[in-house]
Amino acid sequence: MIMANQSIYESIIKITVDNGWVVPYSPILPKAFKAHINVEYCNSVKSIKYICKFVNKGSDMVVFGVAENRNDEITQYQMGRYISSNEAVWRILSFPIHDRMRISFFELCQNDQFTKTLLYSQVPKYYTWNASGKKWNRRKQGRPVQDYACIFESDAIGRLYTVHPSHAECFYLRLLLIHVRGPTSFLSLKRVNGLQCHNFRQACQELHLLDNHWDATLGNALAAGSPHQIRTLFAIIIATCFLCDPLQSWENFKDFMTQDILHRMRRIAGNNDLMITLEMFNEALIIIEVICLEIANKALTQLGLQAPNRHA
């Protein structure tokens, strides 16, 4: 019997147990709260933001319903954000949150003539960010820039975070920063041809950036997208991105968005010389309107386009 047990033990895989198996804990806490409590030493901002609901990563979004009875959960709802105590105090005391580097960029444009020729994303090529002094300094190494003394160019790439169009003013601010050279303040970004605009959206409209931006997006999609994909993209843009002139964008790209319908009609008619007709455009508009209704519950007439003839 002893020999049998010994053979069984020898057949078991040996496992080495070291300090990696030990979970740090405080004996007082489990005893006081009668629960399993681990202890972690927070020695970096990454640990702190984990405890404080990722306050340094941005605010979380929560959706909750308000109803008179539990069976009717979607009749009324409200959107809210969770803000931790740290972020709440930061906002109550009106401490700066986002714009320190942009303000430093504006100050640089006020004092440095060369910076007035640059876009916001181009600054890291010629300047380095001094974290302690909170300012931009000229690079001291790199390729000399012609016609500018003591200016050196590097291979550094400046990037801007993407912003969803639903975050309206932030999206328009980003659009201005990637097109306007050498702004000296937020007010200067809103000043176009002597006109002081009320907001960033109006400034983008005056500079004709909005529709040009989306036309460029659709133009890039033509290289690899199918007509169905381009129609879907166009529907998303007009339904959620508030184009100034969606009719002009339709006129610019309607031929591409109708190519699959044309190929189908050529195959049915057995005529490869068949050209696009108004009926084919109408069918494309019907498909686009269906997508807009699914996305935003809006018909094309509510989005600045003509209503398709569904009877046809």
Write up what this structure looks like:
With 312 residues, this protein is mainly alpha-helical. It is built from 14 helices and eight strands. Strands 1-2 form a two-stranded antiparallel ribbon. Strands 3-4 form a two-stranded antiparallel ribbon.
Outline:
This protein has 312 residues and is mainly α. It folds into three domains: 28-92, no CATH class; 99-207, no CATH class; 210-303, no CATH class. The chain has helices at 2-11, 28-33, 45-51, 85-92, 100-111, 123-126, 168-177, 186-189, 200-206, 210-221, 227-240, 246-253, 259-269, 278-296; strands at residues 60-65, 77-82, 127-130, 135-138, 143-144, 152-153, 191-192, 195-196.
Portion of residues within helices: 40-55%
SSE-based structural type: mainly alpha
H/E element string? HHHEEHHHEEEEHHEEHHHHHH
Number of strands: 8
Using the alpha-carbon principal axes, give the shape: extended
Rg: 30 Å
Largest sheet: 2 strands, antiparallel
Query: In total, how many domains does the architecture comprise?
Result: 3
Q: Give the rounded overall mean pLDDT.
A: 80
- The number of helical runs is 14
Quick tags:
312 residues, mainly alpha, 3 domains, two-stranded antiparallel sheet, 8 strands
Q: What's the topology here?
A:
Elements: H1 2-11, H2 28-33, H3 45-51, E1 60-65, E2 77-82, H4 85-92, H5 100-111, H6 123-126, E3 127-130, E4 135-138, E5 143-144, E6 152-153, H7 168-177, H8 186-189, E7 191-192, E8 195-196, H9 200-206, H10 210-221, H11 227-240, H12 246-253, H13 259-269, H14 278-296
Antiparallel strand pairs: 1-2, 3-4, 5-6, 7-8
Helix pairs in contact: 7-9, 10-12, 11-14
